[in-house]
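Example 9 (inverse folding). The structure is encoded as follows.
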């Protein structure tokens, strides 16, 4: 009996192994037909060439040489990479472009099956239930929160200017955007912008989030063994810090949810019809599908963690590059300021309303160009669930395909040979009309595009306008040119320091 069972088990294992080898060979045969940068090592692939080294020179050279698609070897694992509207569009608009690649599992402990990671029916249901939270009318209600949060930032900037100190842009914007997402998503006043620096061993939600971001990044680009969750758990020296930070973030999230549940319960008992959710958390707790089923506790917690993460690092990185670009290109800074001055002329206060945002036309061009230049979210990837054709080569099911948005936005065949030049006029309607709609995809496209796109865009326009109304920005003397690097988002390797000159209003 045992002998028969053992033979069956071995046969099943061998069959599985044979299937894995068969699928791997099939994928390798297909990806080898795509062009690939020369010199890939048989084991290390292109990793020795530093494909994601700060400054992204390898990416710029590679897209110039392979402007449609190429195979990147991540160690021994191939990753066909799409960099042209023609090769990207069919993927993002087809059902096979909806399934995220295994790389996203690096976030699994942290955000579970939240919207960014889930697939299939679960993703569809959540996307439907959450879309309302980003409706124009809901976003409007967040503008007063932006005003309150930016007042804190401006106060800190006044103090820095008075002391003659430069602003640490990423640090300050990181705190401000975190304040905004906590208040808009959960109405939580964390006071994070004014907190004293943490002492050794202390943790708050922002520091926990930063720790998790740092560790995911180092797993992505560091020792490939740690991509495997078990290897990471058992052998990585970073695992204890990860476990602590995830535990802390989940505890805070769960606390916010249970407090709100109590508040809603009380409101219902008092006869409140709860027709207008106050924030994203209310929407999650009150969401019901057609048959009246609500989200489970775990689903709600995963979405809260997803939005706190997705809604913070992205806008913080974008704002960091926007303020840097304003300091680096004073002529554009002046034009943005003139636009804001004109908008706010004859007003007693420089608070900006939601109706004002659409008047900030030049500001919008500048922001679009900054987002093109730095592409804060750089590397979405998918796992093919159906064969996918790239320039006549069929990639089989199971292939991990990347879309490199930085390379798309610096593709000379799409944006011209002056793609490294900062030129907001690219986005003037007349010039835009000549471009493929899939040439500019900072928020991705198709069914899995960024649900927070308008929220982010409003916030960035708003913060830029309010900051430039009050201050002239210039590069701190002697500071090196910031070098972009890939963490989860694209950020400068070193903090950017800007001088602040208050305006006499
Ligand atoms: C400038 C800021 C932002 C940029 C450049 C950006 C970019 C992106 C991109 C490229 C994707 C697609 C990722 C993929 O396919 O893997 C995405 C998805 C997503 N983003 Fe954003 N994002 C930004 C801000 C935000 C904000 C503020 C929120 C939330 C408040 C947010 C929440 C999400 C979520 C939940 C998804 C997954 C959507 C889905 O799969 O259905 N993002 N974002």
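The amino acid assigned to each position is listed next.
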């Amino acid at each position: 009996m045992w002998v028969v069972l053992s033979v069956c088990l071995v046969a099943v294992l061998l069959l599985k192994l044979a299937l894995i080898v068969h699928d791997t060979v099939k994928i390798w045969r297909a990806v080898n037909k795509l062009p690939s940068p020369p010199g890939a090592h048989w084991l290390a692939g292109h990793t020795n060439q530093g494909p994601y080294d700060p400054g992204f020179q390898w990416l710029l050279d590679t897209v110039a040489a392979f402007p449609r698609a190429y195979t990147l070897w991540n160690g021994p694992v191939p990753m066909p990479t799409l960099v042209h509207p023609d090769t990207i569009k069919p993927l993002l608009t087809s059902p096979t472009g909806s399934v995220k690649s295994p790389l996203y599992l690096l976030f699994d402990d942290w955000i579970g099956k939240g919207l960014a990671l889930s697939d299939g029916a679960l993703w569809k249901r959540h996307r439907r239930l959450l879309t309302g939270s980003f409706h124009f009318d809901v976003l409007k209600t967040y503008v007063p929160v932006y005003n309150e949060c930016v007042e804190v930032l401006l106060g800190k900037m006044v103090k820095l200017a008075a002391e003659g100190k430069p602003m640490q842009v990423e640090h300050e914007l990181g705190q401000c955007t975190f304040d905004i997402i906590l208040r808009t998503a959960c109405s939580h006043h964390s006071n994070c912008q004014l907190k004293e620096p943490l002492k050794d061993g202390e943790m708050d939600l922002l520091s926990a989030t930063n720790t998790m971001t740092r560790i995911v990044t180092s797993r992505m680009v560091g020792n490939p063994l740690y991509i495997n969750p078990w290897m990471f758990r058992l052998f990585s020296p970073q695992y204890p810090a990860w476990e602590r930070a995830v535990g802390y973030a989940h505890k805070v999230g769960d606390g916010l949810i249970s407090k709100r549940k109590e508040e809603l319960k009380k409101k219902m008992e008092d006869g409140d019809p709860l027709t207008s959710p106050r924030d994203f958390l209310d929407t999650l707790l009150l969401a019901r599908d057609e048959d009246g089923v609500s989200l489970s506790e775990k689903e709600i917690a995963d979405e809260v963690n997803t939005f706190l993460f997705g809604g913070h690092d992205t806008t913080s990185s974008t704002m960091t590059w926007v303020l840097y670009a304003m300091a680096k290109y004073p002529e554009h800074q002046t034009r943005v300021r003139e636009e804001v001055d004109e908008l706010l002329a004859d007003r007693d206060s420089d608070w900006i309303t939601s109706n004002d945002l659409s008047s900030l036309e030049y500001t919008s061009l500048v922001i679009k160009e900054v987002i093109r230049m730095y592409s804060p979210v750089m590397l979405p990837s998918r796992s093919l669930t159906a064969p996918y054709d790239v320039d006549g080569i069929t990639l089989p099911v199971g292939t991990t395909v990347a879309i490199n948005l930085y390379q798309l936005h610096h593709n000379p065949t799409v944006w011209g040979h002056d793609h490294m030049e900062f030129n907001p006029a690219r986005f003037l309607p007349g010039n835009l009309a000549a471009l493929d709609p899939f040439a500019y995809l900072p928020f991705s496209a198709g069914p899995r595009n960024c649900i927070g796109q308008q929220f982010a865009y409003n916030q960035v326009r708003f913060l830029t306008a309010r900051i430039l109304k009050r201050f002239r920005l210039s590069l701190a003397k002697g500071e090196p040119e910031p070098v972009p690097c890939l963490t989860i988002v694209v950020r400068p390797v070193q903090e950017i320091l800007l001088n602040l000159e208050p305006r006499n209003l």
